[in-house]
Amino acid sequence: MLCRPYRPEDFAVLYAIEEACFEPEFRFPRRYMRQLVGRSSAAAWIAEENSVMAGFAVLGWSTRGGATVAYIETIEVLAEHRGQGIGDALLTCIEKSACEAHAALIWLHVDAENAGAIRLYEANGYTQAGREENFYPQGRAALIYQKPLAGACNSE
Predict the structure, then answer these.
(1) Sheet-wide strand order for 127-136
(2) pLDDT category of residue 156 using cuts at 50, 70 and 90
(3) pLDDT above 70: percentage of residues in the chain
(4) How far apart are CA 153 and CA 103, in angstroms?
(5) Strand, helix or coil at 136?
């Protein structure tokens, strides 16, 4: 498995993964996804298995009050590639990007019903920091997870 930075020519396949992973009401619109992967304050990573895109991850960051904080926009892995460590690899890549952006903290929302994603985050040192009701369509709740990066960035 190869984890590499996103390139603009990856977009069509990346968005096909978005369509495969999420029902229409849960999916990022194509235009919004294009904006996410193209921002200067973002990093997108592609996971490839035998030169075939198996998943991707997008991270954004911002600086407020002198502190940079990173936000995981999405980590997506095609169903047939799940359970092979691809989510872990993508998470490692985006955490590295967050460190390079000098982020002190990384955080995310995750569907409270997405047990696989919750296991991924908890296994990688993320802790639940809250819950937001009605965050997702159909009134589904989101759990808020976060991880301080100071130790993770310094250990590289």
Answers:
(1) 2-5, 42-49, 52-64, 67-77, 103-111, 140-148, 127-136
(2) very low
(3) 97
(4) 9
(5) strand
CA distance 4 to 69: 22
**Euclidean distance between CA atoms 103 and 113, whole angstroms:** 28
pLDDT of residue 3: 96
Q: What are phi and psi of 6, to 5 degrees?
A: -65, 145
- Residues whose CB is less than 8 angstroms from the CB of residue 40 and which lie 6 or more positions away in sequence, other chains included: none
Dist CA 108 CA 73 (whole Å): 7
Q: What would the mean pLDDT of 13-39 be, rounded to a whole number?
A: 95
Nearest to 73 by CA among 96, 44, 48: 44
Q: What CATH number belongs to 2-154?
A: 3.40.630.30
Q: In this structure, what token pair is assigned to residue 77?
A: 């892995």
Phi/psi for 23 (5° steps) reads -65, 155
Instruction: Map out the domains of the chain as residue ranges.
Output: 2-154
pLDDT in tens, 56-82: 999 999 998 889 999 999 999 999 999
